Amino acid sequence: MLLHRVVTLMVTLALPALAHATPTQYPLALQNCATPLTFEHAPKSAVTIGQAGTEMLYALGLGDRLVGTSLWFNDVPVQYKAQNDKVERLADNDPSFEAVIGKRPELVVVQLEWMVGPQGVVGTREQFHELKIPTYLMPSDCEGKDNLVGADGTRMQPFSIDTVYKSISQLAEIFDVQARGEQLNNQLKASLEKSIASLKGKDLSATSALFWFSSADMDIDPYVAGRKGIPDFMLNTLGVRNVVESDEEWPTVGWETLAKANPTFLVIARMDRRRFPADDVEKKLEFLRTDPVTRNMDAVKNNRIIVLDAHGMQASLRLFDGIETLATAISRHDLPK
Amino acid sequence: MTARLITAFAACTALLLAVLAGVAIGETPIAPDVVLQVLANKLWGAGHALDPIDEGIVWNYRLTRALVAAACGAGLAICGVVLQSLLRNPLADPYLLGISAGASTGAVVVAVLGLGAGAISLSAGAFAGAICAFALVILLARASGPSGVSAQIILAGIAGSQLFNAITAFLITKSASSEQARGIMFWLLGNLSGVRWPSVWLAVPVAVLGLVVCLWHRRALDAFTFGADSAASLGIPVRRVQLLLISCAALVTAVMVSIVGSIGFVGLVIPHAVRLLAGTGHGRLLPVSALGGALFLIAADVLSRTLIKGQVIPVGVVTALVGAPVFALILIGRRHAR
User: Fold this and answer.
1) Does residue A197 belong to any structural domain of this protein?
2) 3 state DSSP class of A79
3) What pTM was estimated for this model as a whole?
4) Interface ipTM
5) What would the mean pLDDT of A67-80 be, rounded to a whole number?
6) Pair A186, A208 in one domain
7) Domain B2-337 classification at class level
8) Cβ pairs A/B, distance under 8 A
9) A226 and A232 Cβ atoms separated by less than 8 Å
């Protein structure tokens, strides 16, 4: 997979690249989600809240600085397993405030603002900053997004992939590994370009798609990807239209509306979570093929159903794998004009 | 007798029209003639050539939804009548016996703790939770003293509800993410989007059976209006009738909650509204309440799908939002009519 290639590439390129990288000038001052941060030196230890940040630090080769991880969604990628086994997992879900500060970290890397933010379940940023523990919040979850409105927050601006690049370059700057950061970003950008290029020459003007994440009960209105969120970004990047028009990140929309919209592709999420029956990809397929309405949708009749890992729909390194999977699947089908 | 027949005929017509309206109005526009053609195809094989998606939506989504809404509305309304009469408390509603609190706990145990690893649906969890809560409430009421005292049942119900609400809150705080809690709340606030034919075959017979059992005991219910002592002096086996009717109400409510979530307001207010309009004799009160509940919930469901375009409001929100002012108007109008 992509991550594996990134790592291999970095091992071969990192040393020569490091040689001519600009080292970070300390004290380093930067703005992070409307909060000024200052670093006197590179943090010697860090705690992560959220798997996206954990994996970014591993990809930047900073695994030895990690003293605690939390908020896991999936298994750690195999190439980081050995490193990850050495790091204490503070909690599978949200850690307590004291569990985090108990590690005396010099930085806390936070994926989601509802974990650490104005209404953070772990704490507010001020609580950490009073203890002289800086917090770095992923720009993907704060820029153009208001997390105090709506259950999953509301995006005012469509998700921008630049926020992912930005978190990598800023983390690289904070830890003084800028060459590695640059390398990683270039690799990710190249991967994105490759995915887009793989659909070059295809006429996608009449192609649409629907992202089905899960449903609270099998037949109930499903959670689908709305406008402005990450799945919508993935579709836009490839030139495919999202049939859902809500601005919420994950609205529930009735099957009546979805069936009438009749998307060219159905993208269904695969996940390890088993909270609702519809978390299981097989259950989703069974529903689509047996429900008297959905079985008549063009995507189901022509088997244009794409299975995508749910973690590929998060603002993380895995997003690039997700786009690659999507592009490959779309390029395999003959598309309606 | 003819007057009765006319009333019954009018009631059936009203119900039929309401179901038709529920089938014709939905999230997306489907022409009325298409709707009628679908019904003709399905009911007597008229053989119109139609888009299978339209056909599926009308027959499998909208019709089932309207029928389940009718059954739930009717079921909840008769449960409200029975509990208000038996317990002689105007605030009694079907959720008084800890049923909705128990259903939440059951659903949360399934969704948050992952009981059954995805094989048990929220509905099954909710039903089991509701029955557990009800059993606990009844045991508590009996343990607290001689039966037949309505205050004990009400207090036991409150204690049971509080206990189960606390368990739910504890489980959510301990292990749920906000997204999980949202999924469960969304479901619990009342949702008719997931109903299909199996739900119809469950909800409609349960509502009809509930109505028949209650009508069978209409004279006992009339007697209970004057208190358990008066009922006993009329030769009614107080304890047996009370347990039977309360269990019946609890079962009907638990089934409805497990299908559509806890839709509030119907069971509390419809009986009062009907009493104001049709009198307090249970021979009339029960069927008219059932009809009123059915019409009200179909209408609320149609509104929930059309009030905001492209979005479905939880039907429980609509029932309270629309029902409360209507009820206020009935109360005021009744006073002026006197």
Assistant:
1) no
2) helix
3) 0.79
4) 0.75
5) 89
6) no
7) mainly alpha
8) 101
9) yes
